[in-house]
Specification:
Shape: elongated
Strand order of the largest sheet: 1-4-2-3
Number of helices: 2
Strand content: 15-25%
Radius of gyration: 27 Å
């Protein structure tokens, strides 16, 4: 998707126009993610650029596009240029920090250190 969206429309509040732009971007990304991946790929990657026009658009991650739209609108620009291109990619495995191992959960028979003492038994005499 390569498109220039106007930030001002007569008869509409500017905030609603910006919300509509963000909605269109999210709808496009959802539609692209539903497409079948080519053989050997595990996810869709998105190459994004956002700016006041195509010449000044800067590269952004897909998570930063909404914030970039707000930033362009805050500068007083009349339009925002959005370019989102889907590309098949490979998911990278998460790396666990060395020396940090997942500890097993505490045994169910051990009382927790911060738990309250058990309630007194009924009929037992209480000492004061």
């Amino acid at each position: 998707m390569k498109k220039t969206f106007p930030l001002h429309e007569p008869g509409k509040a500017d905030a609603r126009v910006i919300d509509g732009i963000k909605y269109d971007v999210r709808k496009y990304v959802k539609r692209e993610r539903r497409k079948t991946l080519p053989e050997g790929f595990s996810q869709w990657d998105f190459n994004c650029r956002v700016g006041a026009n195509a010449a000044t658009a800067e590269a952004r991650t897909i998570d930063d596009v909404a914030g970039a739209i707000d930033a362009v609108a805050a500068t007083g620009a009349l339009a925002v240029y959005i370019e989102i291109l889907a590309a098949a990619g490979h998911r990278t495995p998460r790396v666990v920090a060395p020396g940090i191992a997942a500890s097993p959960p505490p045994a169910a028979t051990e009382p927790a250190a911060d738990s309250a003492p058990p309630p007194p038994e009924p009929g037992a005499a209480q000492s004061s």
